[in-house]
Amino acid sequence: MNGVPGDELLRRAVRVRGIHIGHPVDVLLHPTKPQALGLDVLCGDDRHRFLPFRAATLHEDHVEAASPLVLLDLREDGFYRREARPLGELRGTPLDGTRTLQDVVLGRDWSVEELVLDGDRVPLDGIALPPRSERRRASWLRRPRRRRGRRRSR
Prior knowledge:
- Helix content is 9%, strand content 40%.
- The protein is mostly beta strands.
- Strand 2 (13-16) and strand 3 form a beta hairpin.
- It is globular, with a radius of gyration of 18 Å.
- 25% of the residues are buried.
- Mean pLDDT is 83; it is low at 134-146.
């Protein structure tokens, strides 16, 4: 792999043993480091699943998942939805003064090697990706309850 832009990854099919199972809809980035975690894959059953890059192999025309078991259900309240930074949400964010983020270029180890700012590829050199923005919780999601210590009766 020699510097793959996120947009290019999103145009490739996801397969398991050559069988098409879906297509990527977003690249999920680490919450604090310039590192890609995996893909948000929309599968044939209309469910979103997380494909970790460590369990995937990149080919010329597709991304091969090591097994169907590595595709994790990507629920709205799940860890990767809460913690990861979707590239789709970061696009258009102002970085480096007046330029805006359009894409990231991933290296061999899935680290972010370059940024695409207003059409120009620039090295990451000291440019920080914006922190993950707080998402508003959907009204139908239950809020976690605070755990209080048990009151002891005397």
